[in-house]
Amino acid sequence: MENPGQSTPPPAMVKLKPIEATPETFKEFGQVIEASPDGEEFGPQDAQLDLSRGIPRFYIMHLEERPLKFSTITHHASVTQCLGSIGGNVWYIGVAKPSIVDSSEIKADKGLNIVQSHCGHFYVPPAVDDVRVFRIAGPKFLKLNRGTWHAGPLFKADVMDFYNLELSNTNVSSSIPNSSLKF
After folding, report:
1. Integer Cα distance of 56 and 39 in angstroms
2. What's the whole-model pTM score?
3. Domains located in the chain, CATH noted
4. Nearest to 153 by CA among 99, 56, 101, 87
5. What pairs with residue 163 in β-bridges?
6. What InterPro entries does the record tag this protein with (predicted)?
């Protein structure tokens, strides 16, 4: 219980230096997909998708006023997600490694801060220190691994359009295991 004469301190602002998104720098969180020659066979350079738990949705997302700051982060526990700016404009995204916990691991919890989402899956919330910010420029897109925590797209322009591949009900169904955290 709060004391009537005390106020809650404001959240601390943490400044993160963006890392250029390359296949090497982003591999813990997903993939950076770049242009390949037409006719090239499917391989590890292509997005390794998991859309098996629903109907895929590929659409253009129109975003306005997404400044380079965030206080919440989310993950999609059932699906990979792909994001890329239309026109190859520079954008940013905050990410943390997936932290979904298999239910069989819960009994072996050795001090982890395991949380159950409102949809039923378990996860360990990422620490602020585990969040990285990436800069994405040019004709490429990101494939986020299933469960990767993310905040964004963020950008300096007033308006940007993005293509987005996720499940058709990712943002509308309470039965889709997603979680959001506020820092």
Report:
1. 24
2. 0.85
3. 49-182 (2.60.120.480)
4. 87
5. 60, 84
6. RmlC_Cupin_sf (IPR011051), Ureidoglycolate_lyase_dom_sf (IPR024060)
